[in-house]
Amino acid sequence: MSKMFVKTGDTVVVLSGKSKGVKGEVIAVSPKENKVIVKKVNVVTKHVKPRKMGEPGGLIEVESALYASKVQLVCPKCGEATRVGRKDGKRVCKKKNCGHEF
After folding, report:
1. Residues of the chain under the 70 pLDDT cut
2. pLDDT at position 66, please?
3. Within 10 A of 43 (CB to CB), how many other CB atoms are there?
4. What is the C-alpha to C-alpha distance for residues 40 and 11, in angstroms, rounded to an integer?
5. Cβ distance 29 to 36 under 8 Å?
6. Which residues on adjacent β-strands are paired with residue 93?
7. Which of these, 13, 15, 36, 93, could form a disulfide with 98 (CB 3.0-4.6 Å)?
């Protein structure tokens, strides 16, 4: 299991794939698989069968997981995608003249 640089609730930008350049909020993190689920990114169509009486079935759209290496954290202070550094156990922005803590 590896330590993740993103946490649930962080704002990230997608670096590659069909959703390249899209910003979104992290919904879920899976450190075991090294994957994240980002809101309104990597949306797939899923066939769902109705399970209960009156419950609709059909096609629904769901966010799918993507590898954590394909996303980069967005600094809330400077608003740019940045690498994450560690200082006194806290995550910090690596951009020049920023150094904001997350």
Report:
1. 1-2
2. 95
3. 13
4. 12
5. yes
6. 84
7. 93
What one-character DSSP code corresponds to residue 99? Answer: -
Q: What share of the chain is helix, strand, coil (3-state, %, to 5)?
A: 5, 45, 55
User: In 3-state terms, what secondary structure has residue 49?
Assistant: coil
pTM, two decimals, is: 0.84
Q: In the block, which residue shows the tokens 């995550």?
A: 91
Please check whether residue 84 is in contact with residue 94, taking contact to mean a CB–CB distance below 8 angstroms: yes
Residue 44 neighbours by CB under 8 Å, 6+ apart:
61, 62, 63, 64
Q: What pLDDT, in 10s, does the model give residues 38-57?
A: 999 999 999 999 988 888 88
Residue position matching structure tokens 């090294």: 34
